[in-house]
Amino acid sequence: MWRRGVSYYSYALHPQGGDYLGEVARLDAFFINRPATRDILNDKYRFSLELSDRFPVPPVLGILKNGALELSGPLEPWWARGDLIAKPLHGSRGAGVVRLKQGDPLPVSSVPFLLTPFVQQASYAVRIAPFSGNTIRVLTLRDEGGPFIARAVHRFGTLQTAPTDNWSQGSLCAQVDLKTGVLSRAVKHPRRTNGVLDWVSRHPDTDAPIEGTVVPRWSQVQAELLRTLKDLPEFLYVGWDVMVTEEGFWVLEGNVNTEFNALQVHGPLLADDRVKAFYKSHKIV
C-alpha cells in the first residue's frame, strides 16, 4: 500500500491495485491548475463573484465575521422563500455547514461564514434523502480535445450527516451513468462500516430506491457544464458540486483537489484511456 501511495483506510476501496489513483497522486494533482485558478476555487466568495455570470451559482447574501453580519441586501425577501445556509468561507467536506430557519441564531465563530439561500433540490433527491442537500460530484478534465467529464457520483446524506452529504462522514455514494443519468447501487465509506464495502440499493433511512433512479435532465447538465468550460481554459481539473433542481441545476462550488475515493469506489479512474492520458500528461502517473 505504501509503495502504491495508498493509505490504510483506502485499502478496502481498491485493494487489488491496478488503475487506481492513490493519495500521493491526489496531492500531486493539486498543482495541475495554476495558482490563480486554485485561489478562485478555494475561496467560496471569490468563486461566487467571479463565476456567477458563467454558472448558475447561489448568490451570497452576506458574510458573517466575528458575529457581525455584512449584508449585500435585506434578508427578508430570502427568508420568505425558505431557509438559508451558513457555510465556512474556506471550509471543505461539509464541515461547519448550518441550515438556518427564520429566527435561528447565526453561527458565532472567528471563522468567516457565507450566507446563501437554501437550494430547493429536485423531487427525486428529496424523495431519497429529504434531510440533506444531495449533490453530484462531477469531475471535469481538460486536454487538447477540450473539457470532458471523467466521472460523476451522486452523494445522498443520511440522518448522521444532515444537513450535508459528506461521504467520509457517513453519506451514501452512487455512480451516475454518464450516458443515461441512471444511478448505481450506493455505498458508505468503509471507515463507517468497519472496513467493508456495504452496498445498498435503497436508502437505509427512508427506504427510497437509489439504484435505477434517473437524474432528470442529466444530458442538459453535462452539456451546459462543458459549454461553459470551453470558455474557461484555465480550469484544467475541477470537481464540481452540482445540485439538480426542478428547473435546472446549481453549481454550489468547485473543488481544486477533489478526493478520489468517492469517485473510485465504483472503479478505477485510470481504466479510461483518455483520463489516464490526462494524468500522464501532467506527470501524476
Taken in chain order, the helices and strands follow as HHHEEHEEEHEEEEEHEEHH
Question: Gap between N and C termini, in Å?
Answer: 16 Å
Largest sheet: number of strands, sense, barrel closure: 7 strands, antiparallel
CATH architecture of the largest domain: 2-Layer Sandwich
Give a short summary of the structure.
The protein is an alpha+beta fold and 285 residues long. It has helices at residues 23-29, 35-42, 44-51, 76-81, 123-128, 218-230, 261-264, 273-281; strands spanning 62-65, 68-71, 84-88, 98-100, 113-117, 136-143, 146-156, 172-176, 183-187, 199-200, 237-244, 249-255.
Description:
- With 285 residues, this protein is an alpha+beta fold.
- The chain is built from eight helices and twelve strands.
- The chain folds into two domains: 213 residues, ATP-grasp fold, B domain (D-amino Acid Aminotransferase, Chain A, domain 1, 2-Layer Sandwich), CATH 3.30.470.20; 60 residues.
- The strands form two sheets. The chain has a seven-stranded antiparallel sheet. It has a five-stranded antiparallel sheet with strand order 2-1-5-3-4, with no helix packed on it.
- α2 crosses α3.
- The protein is globular, with a radius of gyration of 19 Å.
List keywords for this structure.
285 residues; alpha+beta; D-amino Acid Aminotransferase, Chain A, domain 1; 2 domains; seven-stranded antiparallel β-sheet; five-stranded antiparallel β-sheet; 21% helix; 24% strand
Give a topology summary:
Layout (H helix, E strand, L loop, with lengths): L22 H7 L5 H8 L1 H8 L10 E4 L2 E4 L4 H6 L2 E5 L9 E3 L12 E5 L5 H6 L7 E8 L2 E11 L15 E5 L6 E5 L11 E2 L17 H13 L6 E8 L4 E7 L5 H4 L8 H9 L4
Antiparallel strand pairs: 1-2, 1-5, 3-4, 3-5, 6-7, 6-11, 7-8, 8-9, 9-10, 11-12
Helix pairs in contact: 2-3
